[in-house]
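Appendix B. One record, verbatim.
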Amino acid sequence: MQRYFVKEKITTEYVTISEDFHHIKNVMRMSKGDTVIVSDQEKAYKAVITEFTSNTVLLKTVTELDSNELNVRLAIGIGLMQNKKIDFLVQKLTELGVTDIIPINMQRSIVKPKDNKIERWMKIAKEASEQSHRMIIPTIHPVISLKDLTPCTSSNLGFATYKSPLKSPSSKFLRTLPPGL
């Protein structure tokens, strides 16, 4: 069943979707009476399409779905990489249940991402969340340097580093981040 996200919180039994209108109507060729899943990043609902207007879809929520999210927040800092490796990494981290992705500009990083890269990564995370039936879209933070990340460290933050993809990590641990990061 197709899953869509809405920006506003779902408080009534009717929900409108305008951002994915073209995808719902023209790509998926859905019609009145078809069922989708809609999420506001707090709860997810099974909903039925009741009406198409010029650029929105009106849905009626039927039932609330159980959460399938992890009970912990998991943030991952990733060093900037060349080509489309970060695109792939954002997709896979989203599918694995990460809640925050923090791109880190390392001292010797060659890649200098443009502003539109963050938007691209957010779109990739949204699509991966829909595909993997998540209730939330991970937050893609602005690019920061490693020294800007270290003041955030606490006993709940761990680092796992890889010098080479062929070698094992120098440290193997992940811990949850405190609320607010």
